[in-house]
C-alpha cells in the first residue's frame, strides 16, 4: 500500500495515457500461441521491477529460485522506491522504457488495467488449474472487464496479533483471542489495567494505509462496505461503519492506546507489536518475523480481526501482483515466470519454507506450516479476506489528505457527531469516485 | 574582557552542539544493532556497537560500491560539464563585446526561476529517444543543466572583477584570449571556480528526483535513490531505521570531506561572487 506518491513524479503519470496511445506495439500473435511452462522459453536476461518494501526477502528468494533453474534467462530485479512506483510505471510505459515484467501493489492494478497499460494475458493463463485456488483478493484486482492481467506475487494479510505474556498477566486465556469487538474491548481494558507502559490495543492515528489494513476489516466483519467502487456507488454503507468508529473512539477515550499512536504515519507501525507493550494489535503477516527479531522471548498468538457479532471476522488481502507492462518484449517468458510462481514446488519449497504465505489457498497445508502454528493461523485470513476494488483507491482511501483518514481521525480524537463525520466522508468519496 | 571571551565561547559551543547533535545522533543510530535501532521509543546511546546496518546496506541489490561509483561518477562528470560550459561562457559575457550581452545574461539566468522538476518530463522523453537514460552521462547532463545558471552567475561576476590592467598586461606580452583566460583569469578566480565545482558536487551527490526519473535499472541507481528503496521495510511504509542512518552517514562523508578540504576557497569564493 503506497502511502503517497510525490506530486512531481505523479505529474509524469499524466503523460502516460498520451504516450500509451501512440508508442508501444501490442504483443504479437506469434507470442500468444506458446503454452506456458515453468521455465524459460528463450534466453537472455529478463528485467523485472518490484516496489521496495517488506517482501524484499521473499521476492529475492523467488527470483533466486528462478535464476537457479534458468541460468540462461535470469531475472534482473530492480527495486523502485515504493512511494514512487506508480509514477515510475506510468513514466516507463509512456516512454517505452519498460521492464519485461513487474510486481506492483495489487491495489493499483485496476487503474492500470483500465488505462490499457498492462498486457491482457487472458488467453495465455485462463485455463491454468492453479488459478482456481490462487488468492481471491489478488485475482479480483487482476481482472478487469473479464480479462486477466496478472497472478499473485506475494500476500500481505492482516490479522489480530496478541501478546500471550500480557494475556496471562491480565488473567486472560492465552489460547483464546477475542472473537468480537466487545471481547476485544474488555480484554483491552484488562491489559491496560496492568499499568506501566502497557496498553491493551493499538490504533495508528496518522496512516491511511495502516487503517484500511487493520481497521477496515473490523468494519467488513461487521457487515459494512467501505469504498465506492465506481461512480454512483454508495460508500460507507452498513451499521458496521458507525459501530467500529464508536468502538475506536471509546478505546481512545478509555486510554487503551498509547498517546504516541496518534502520530503514527506508518514508518514505525511495524515495530509496535514487537515492543511487548501492546496487548492486541491489527497488523500483517510480515510482523511474525519482525516481532521475533525484536523481542525473541515474547510469546504471541494470532487471531482473526473480529466484527460486532461473535465469531465474525475479516481481513485485508494486500500484497503484490506480477503483471506485464505494455511494451514488454518478453511476454511469453513473463508468463512462464508466473506459472513457475504458482507451481506446487515453488509454493511449498520457496514461499512456505521461508514462512511466507503461499499465494494458493490449497497449498497452506504443508510440512513447513505444520511446524509453525502462527503461520497457519495467519493463513486463515486468506479465506475471510478481501481486496477493495476501485479505480480511485489512492484518492478515496490511501491519501494522507483523503476522506478515509480524515474520517478516522475525527472519530478517534474529537467529539464530533459520528453521523456527521460519516456523511462528510461519504460525500467526499462519492465526489472522488465520480471523477475516476 | 576575558569574561566576554568566555561568553562568546559558550555561545559558539552551544551553537555547534545544536548543529552537530543531529549528525552525531545519526552516526550513533547507524552503529546500533538491528533490534536496538528499531526500538520504540528509541534509545539515545547505543547499548552495544554493531556494523549490522552497514552490512545490510553494503549488500543491498548490486552492492553499495556500485552505487557509490554511480553517484561519484555522475558528480565528477557534472563538475566537468559545468566548468567546461560556464568558464568560457562567463569569460565571454564578462570580457567581450557580445551584442546585447546584458539581456543574454538575464535570459540565461531566467532558468533559475523555472523549477527543474517541471523540465524533467520533456527532458526524460527526449533522453529516452537519444538513448541517454540509464546512463551516467545522461544524468550528469541533467545535473549540469540544473547547475548552469547559478554557476554562470558566480563565474561571470568574478571574471568581471579581475582588474583590467592584468588583462592588458597579458595582451601587451602577446597573449591570445585563450592564453589570458588560462594564465590570468583562471588563477585569479580560483575561489569562484572551486565554489562552482563544490556546489555542482553537492547538488549532484544529493539529487533524488532526476536520478529516479532517468534511471530504471538498479545497476545504474545513485545513492539517494537506493537509500529511498533500501530503507523501506514493509509495504505500509515501515522504515529500517538502522539502515537509513547508515546510508545517511555514508552519504554525508564525501560532502563533509570535500567541504573541509576546500573550505578556505569556498568561503572566499562566495565573497568574490557577491561583492561585484
TrEMBL record, chain A:
Pfam families, alphabetized: SBP_bac_8
Keywords annotated in UniProt: Signal, Sugar transport, Transport
GO MF, one example: maltose binding
GO cellular component, one term: ATP-binding cassette (ABC) transporter complex, substrate-binding subunit-containing
GO BP annotation list: maltodextrin transmembrane transport; maltose transport
PROSITE patterns registered for this protein in UniProt: PROKAR_LIPOPROTEIN (PS51257)
PANTHER family: MALTOSE-BINDING PERIPLASMIC PROTEIN, MALTOSE_MALTODEXTRIN-BINDING PERIPLASMIC PROTEIN
Family, as annotated: Belongs to the bacterial solute-binding protein 1 family.
Name of the protein in question: Multiple sugar transport system substrate-binding protein
From TrEMBL, chain B:
GO cellular component: plasma membrane
Range of residues in the leader sequence: none
Keywords: Cell membrane, Membrane, Sugar transport, Transmembrane, Transmembrane helix, Transport
Localization of this protein: Cell membrane
Pfam families, alphabetized: BPD_transp_1 (PF00528)
Superkingdom in the source lineage: Bacteria
Cross-referenced InterPro entries: MetI-like, MetI-like_sf
GO BP terms in the entry: transmembrane transport
Transmembrane segments annotated in the record for this chain: 67-91, 103-124, 136-155, 184-205, 241-262
Gene3D superfamilies xrefs: MetI-like
Membrane topology note: Multi-pass membrane protein
Residues annotated as domain ABC transmembrane type-1: 68-262
PANTHER family to which the protein is assigned, alphabetical: ABC TRANSPORTER PERMEASE PROTEIN MG189-RELATED-RELATED (PTHR43744), SN-GLYCEROL-3-PHOSPHATE TRANSPORT SYSTEM PERMEASE PROTEIN UGPE (PTHR43744:SF8)
Family: Belongs to the binding-protein-dependent transport system permease family.
Protein name stated in the entry: Multiple sugar transport system permease protein
Amino acid at each position: 500500500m503506497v502511502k503517497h506518491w510525490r506530486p512531481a513524479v505523479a505529474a509524469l503519470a499524466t503523460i502516460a495515457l498520451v504516450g500509451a496511445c501512440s508508442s508501444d506495439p501490442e504483443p504479437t500473435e506469434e507470442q500468444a500461441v506458446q503454452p506456458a511452462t515453468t521455465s524459460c522459453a528463450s534466453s537472455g536476461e529478463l528485467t523485472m521491477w518490484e516496489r521496495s518494501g517488506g517482501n524484499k526477502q521473499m521476492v529475492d528468494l523467488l527470483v533466486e529460485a528462478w535464476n537457479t533453474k534458468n541460468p540462461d534467462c535470469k531475472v534482473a530485479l530492480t527495486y523502485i522506491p515504493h512511494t514512487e512506483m506508480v509514477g515510475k510505471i506510468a513514466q516507463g510505459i509512456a516512454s517505452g522504457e519498460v521492464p519485461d515484467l513487474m510486481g506492483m501493489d495489487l491495489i493499483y492494478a485496476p487503474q492500470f488495467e483500465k488505462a490499457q497499460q498492462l498486457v491482457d494475458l487472458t488467453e495465455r493463463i485462463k485455463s491454468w488449474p492453479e488459478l482456481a485456488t490462487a488468492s481471491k483478493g489478488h485475482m479480483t484486482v487482476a481482472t478487469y472487464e473479464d480479462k486477466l492481467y496478472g497472478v499473485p506475487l506475494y500476500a500481505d494479510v492482516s490479522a489480530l496479533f496478541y501478546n500471550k505474556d500480557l494475556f496471562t498477566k491480565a488473567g486472560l486465556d492465552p489460547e483464546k483471542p477475542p472473537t468480537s469487538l466487545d471481547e476485544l474491548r474488555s480484554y483491552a481494558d484488562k491489559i491496560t489495567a496492568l499499568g506501566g507502559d502497557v496498553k491493551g490495543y493499538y490504533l495508528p492515528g496518522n496512516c491511511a494505509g495502516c487503517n484500511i489494513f487493520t481497521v477496515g476489516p473490523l468494519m467488513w466483519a461487521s457487515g459494512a462496505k467501505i469504498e465506492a467502487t465506481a461512480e454512483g456507488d454508495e460508500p460507507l454503507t452498513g451499521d458496521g461503519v458507525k459501530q467500529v468508529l464508536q468502538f475506536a473512539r471509546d478505546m481512545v477515550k478509555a486510554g487503551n492506546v498509547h498517546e504516541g499512536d496518534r502520530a503514527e504515519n506508518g514508518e514505525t507501525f511495524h515495530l509496535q507489536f514487537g515492543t511487548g507493550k501492546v496487548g492486541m494489535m491489527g497488523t500483517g503477516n510480515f510482523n511474525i518475523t519482525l516481532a521475533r527479531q525484536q523481542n525473541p522471548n515474547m510469546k504471541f498468538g494470532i487471531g482473526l480481526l473480529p466484527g460486532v457479532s461473535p465469531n465474525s471476522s475479516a481481513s485485508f488481502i494486500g500484497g503484490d501482483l506480477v503483471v506485464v507492462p505494455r511494451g514488454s518484449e518478453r511476454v511469453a517468458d513473463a508468463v512462464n515466470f508466473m506459472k513457475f510462481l504458482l507451481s506446487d514446488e515453488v509454493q511449498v519449497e520457496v514461499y512456505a519454507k521461508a514462512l511466507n504465505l503461499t499465494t494458493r489457498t490449497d497449498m497452506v497445508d504443508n510440512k513447513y506450516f505444520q511446524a509453525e502454528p502462527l503461520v497457519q493461523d495467519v493463513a486463515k485470513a486468506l479465506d475471510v479476506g478481501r481486496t477493495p476494488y476501485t479505480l480511485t483507491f489512492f484518492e478515496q482511501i490511501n491519501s494522507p489528505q483523503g476522506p478515509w483518514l480524515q474520517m478516522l481521525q475525527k472519530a478517534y480524537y474529537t467529539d464530533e457527531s459520528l453521523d456527521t463525520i460519516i456523511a462528510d466522508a461519504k460525500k467526499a468519496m462519492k465526489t472522488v469516485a465520480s471523477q475516476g | 574582557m576575558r569574561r566576554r571571551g568566555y561568553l562568546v565561547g559558550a555561545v559558539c559551543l552551544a551553537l555547534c552542539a545544536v548543529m552537530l547533535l543531529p549528525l552525531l545522533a545519526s552516526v550513533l543510530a547507524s552503529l546500533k544493532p538491528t533490534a536496538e535501532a528499531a526500538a520504540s521509543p528509541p534509545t539515545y546511546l547505543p547499548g552495544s556497537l554493531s556494523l549490522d546496518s552497514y552490512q545490510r546496506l553494503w549488500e543491498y541489490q548490486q552492492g553499495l560500491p556500485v552505487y557509490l561509483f554511480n553517484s561519484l561518477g555522475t558528480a565528477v562528470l557534472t563538475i566537468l560539464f559545468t566548468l567546461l560550459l560556464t568558464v568560457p561562457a562567463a569569460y565571454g559575457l564578462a570580457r567581450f563585446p557580445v551584442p546585447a550581452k546584458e539581456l543574454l545574461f538575464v535570459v540565461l539566468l531566467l532558468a533559475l526561476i523555472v523549477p527543474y522538476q517541471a523540465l524533467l518530463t520533456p527532458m526524460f522523453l527526449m533522453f529516452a529517444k537519444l538513448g541517454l537514460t540509464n546512463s551516467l552521462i545522461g544524468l550528469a547532463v541533467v545535473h549540469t543543466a540544473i547547475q548552469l545558471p547559478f554557476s554562470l552567475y558566480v563565474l561571470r561576476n568574478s571574471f568581471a572583477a579581475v582588474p583590467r590592467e592584468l588583462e592588458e598586461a597579458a595582451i601587451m606580452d602577446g597573449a591570445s584570449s585563450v592564453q589570458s583566460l588560462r594564465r590570468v583569469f583562471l588563477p585569479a578566480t580560483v575561489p569562484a571556480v572551486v565554489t562552482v565545482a563544490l556546489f555542482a558536487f553537492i547538488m549532484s551527490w544529493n539529487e533524488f528526483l532526476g536520478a529516479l526519473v532517468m534511471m530504471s535499472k538498479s545497476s545504474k541507481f545513485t545513492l539517494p535513490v537506493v537509500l529511498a528503496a533500501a530503507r523501506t521495510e514493509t509495504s505500509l511504509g515501515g522504515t529500517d531505521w538502522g539502515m537509513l542512518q547508515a546510508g545517511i552517514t555514508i552519504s554525508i562523508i564525501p560532502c563533509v570531506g570535500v567541504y573541509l578540504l576546500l573550505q578556505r576557497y569556498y568561503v572566499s569564493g562566495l565573497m568574490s561572487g557577491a561583492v561585484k
